[in-house]
Write a structure and sequence with these properties.
The chain is of the alpha/beta class. It is built from 25 helices and 11 strands. The protein is elongated.
Length: 757
């Protein structure tokens, strides 16, 4: 029966999809436009308003500069579109600014580009959702006080939709995207036609003069705020591999289409705001510029409401662009070992689920901190966009220089990308100069901090990889095992733990009870009556407990370590009574506490022997299993796995199986080749996992080996790291498998720790 968590997960995100279906998840140009262009297109809903908010400070006469500024921004848009079109064709496997900058400018420019993009994607979600909430408030002003709650709820919904998979979420988002294009396009056309036909709106009598002067700096500020219209333009190049084949051509066509639509909508809205004398929030603080223009053109009728609904939907769904690109970029960084490896994992629906959840959580934090106020969040925006633009286009110039012997038109291409780099760098300087003190300094400070963090993660992975393959860190063959059986009070579960302990190949077997004083309740006599009469049973040692139980156990092990070879194993066995009900399986805490206490003690393995409360589990002397099978789970061929294999050989098993679960088909062939080179003497069995899950294939494999006469030990290698944050960088598979097998009778999950320096 499926676990409650699995049932809930299936209800929220849908049934899992096979890895083989990944090709079918690719997008057509129509759906790709909805998925990747919603961010850029939606910026037309607030870019004009952001310009007007700045210009109105110098009075309504300053609003005349809005149209020339929009044309200047659109010119930059055209340059960026043309430049990125070349980037897509040059890098069809992925044209992210991180990839382009890393390959052509070096490690640190690439990390700066990646950091800028990661920050920008988070801010894109926060800005888009906040702007969408503003559109709702324009429609229903009484919701103004619930902005944060609404924004957070929308993030949860969009996160769940994206967890369902790219193709499914793309189909859902296509309708609002095309509805927005149609309605706003109609608004622009009808508004211009009505104006040319003689329809006029009187200019407001108030605010004829502003409280500030019209300065060059003010115009630059308005330009930088309006440049938010360019956000999301790079999304198509970041997601090239999401398109159907031919990927480069389909992505390039989508990019050009998006640029043309965005330019038309942005300039059209700005022109309408000018000719209909819309001044922005200063005219009505609860209504957006789009809402005021729609009122002026269509009146307070059905089309006004339709435009508002389409606007807040496109703004909400604009966040989907980041939900497509943030996880993909995080996957690239994880692949290059600059981000936690968990970002490489595809979820049940073939999406990069960890990246999706991380983006939603970070965006929600930003919205809560800034209380869903667009004017505050927008000051952080755009810096990352133009930083990545500049680095990407600079990288392309270097790319064409490297290929000058192969590409006869390299000068032409380099000039195009060079113009793009200079233009976007100029805009970046304007943005920094005008927004720095208003909040952009946080992004400027955040980028180097993030670069430092990514670099630290990379150093850790590089060091781990080095240690895992160093010949002098390989475990010695034929190590011995020394067994300590922790005895609480002689009982059926203690007897079963003893039976397992004597299966281990050892001549050094200790049964130990820790007591604060003497022999409580005559435990030694009870042990003798129940177990001690067997020829293989050791005498029960009563050891004085000083302080905590775990402290006493650790001291006992330290004394044992002094008299045995340094590379021998010490296995500490704890019996664990397991209670079952319909929903949960609960084990005791003793084994967990002992394991945590001994985690940093080298070559010590803590094994919990479960005892399920049922008639099937019987006392020593009954029909106990006669066959012992060990399964070593192999994630990769390295020293940690060898360490687990050497431990498995000390368990006196009738059979030892080395098993690799295929979670990443591209890496499995390499793992198999490296395993053969290790020369362990064990054949590696490869088990496919079509749904990219570890637990279910292992469970099925173990069930095929298990019967009433067989006990199975599942041996895992587990990294033990020095710093707490290093644990975040590694999968916690041991814990997952422990929970999965806890209710399985006669299956023991043993983690063999491998200590990293």
């Amino acid at each position: 029966m499926a676990r409650p968590t699995e049932v809930l997960k299936s209800l929220l995100v849908g049934r899992p999809k096979e890895t083989a279906g990944l090709e079918h998840e690719r997008l057509s140009k129509k759906v790709g436009l909805a998925v990747f262009a919603s961010d850029a297109l939606s910026s037309s809903a607030y870019a004009t308003e952001e310009m007007l908010v700045v210009l109105i400070a110098a009075g309504t006469t300053a609003l005349a500069y809005s149209v020339p500024l929009s044309l200047g921004i659109t010119a930059v848009l055209g340059i960026v579109i043309f430049s990125y079109r070349q980037t897509i064709h040059a890098y069809p496997d992925g044209a992210s600014a991180y990839i382009v900058a890393s390959k052509n400018l070096g490690k640190y420019p690439g990390l700066v580009a990646a950091s800028a993009l990661l920050i920008d994607y988070v801010l894109t979600v926060a800005v888009s959702i906040t702007a969408g909430v503003s559109a709702i408030v324009s429609l229903v002003p009484m919701l103004h006080g619930y902005r944060v709650l609404i924004a957070t709820a929308v993030i949860v919904v969009i996160t769940l939709l994206n967890l369902r998979g790219v193709r499914e979420s793309g189909a859902i988002f296509a309708v609002p995207t095309y509805a927005y294009i149609l309605l706003i396009g109609s608004l622009v056309v009808v508004g211009l036609v009505r104006y040319l036909g003689g329809y006029r709106v009187e200019a407001p009598e108030t605010l004829s003069a502003g409280h500030g002067a019209l300065t060059f700096f003010l115009i630059l500020r308005a330009y930088s705020h309006g440049s938010t219209a360019l956000t999301g333009v790079e999304a198509v190049s970041d997601g090239v591999q999401a398109f159907r084949k031919p990927v480069a051509r389909n992505a390039a066509v989508t990019l050009v289409t998006m640029g043309a639509l965005l330019g038309f909508l942005f300039v059209g809205i700005t022109v309408l705001a000018r000719i209909y004398h819309v001044t922005g929030p200063s005219e009505d603080p609860h209504r957006t510029v789009i809402a005021l223009i729609a009122l002026a053109v269509f009146g307070n009728g059905p089309l006004f409401f339709a435009i508002q609904i389409a606007t807040f939907l496109i703004l909400f769904l604009a966040a989907n662009t980041s939900y497509s690109d943030f996880p993909r970029l995080a996957n690239f960084l994880a692949r290059d070992r600059y981000a936690p490896r968990q970002f490489m994992n595809r979820g049940d629906r073939l999406a990069f689920s960890n990246g999706i959840v991380a983006l939603g959580a970070l965006a929600a934090v930003v919205i809560v901190i800034y209380q869903a106020e667009l004017s505050r969040i927008i000051n952080l925006y755009v810096v990352g966009v133009f930083t990545s633009f500049t680095l990407s286009q600079s990288g392309m110039v270097q790319h064409w220089r490297k290929r000058r012997s192969e590409e006869p038109r390299w000068r032409r291409y380099a000039i195009i990308n060079g113009v793009g780099a200079v233009t976007t760098f100029f805009v970046l300087c304007i943005v920094l100069a005008t927004k720095f003190l208003a909040g952009a300094y946080l992004v400027v400070a955040g980028i180097p901090v993030l670069v430092w963090t990514l670099n630290r993660i990379n150093r850790h992975y590089q060091e781990v990889g080095r240690q895992l393959r160093l010949p002098d860190r390989r475990p010695p063959a034929h190590a011995s095992n020394h067994v300590i059986l922790l005895v609480g009070s002689p009982s059926r579960e203690e007897a079963r733990a003893f039976w397992y302990a004597e299966r281990i190949r050892t001549e050094d077997f200790h049964a130990v009870h820790f007591a604060e004083r003497g022999d409580p309740k005559g435990l030694e006599a009870q042990w003798t009556r129940m177990i001690g009469l067997l020829a293989t049973a050791p005498t029960l040692e009563i050891v004085e407990q000083k302080g905590l139980l775990t402290t006493s156990i650790r001291s006992y092990i330290e004394r044992m370590r002094q008299r045995i070879p340094p590379y021998d194993f010490i296995t500490t066995i704890v019996s664990e009574r397991v209670k079952q009900n319909r929903l949960f399986t609960i084990g005791t805490r003793t084994g967990f506490l002992v394991k945590v206490s001994l985690l940093f003690t080298p070559d010590v393995v803590v094994t919990d022997v479960p005892f399920i409360e049922s008639p099937d589990q019987i006392a020593l002397g009954g029909n106990l299993p006669t066959r012992h099978v060990v399964v070593v789970l192999v994630s990769a061929a390295h020293n940690a796995t060898l360490h687990a294999v050497e431990y498995a050989k000390t368990l006196s098993a009738d059979e030892i199986h080395a098993v690799h679960i295929v979670l990443d088909p591209e890496a499995s062939d390499r793992h198999l080749r490296e395993w053969r080179e290790l020369g362990t003497g064990l054949e590696l069995e490869v088990v496919d996992s079509p749904y990219r899950r570890l637990g279910e294939p292992v469970l099925e494999y173990v069930r095929a080996l298990h019967d009433e006469n067989t006990i199975v030990t599942l041996v895992l290698s587990e990294f033990v790291v020095k710093r707490w944050w290093h644990r975040v960088l590694h999968n916690q598979n041991a814990f997952e498998l422990k929970l999965l097998f806890l209710p399985q009778p006669d299956v023991i999950v043993t983690s063999v720790p491998y200590h990293l320096e």
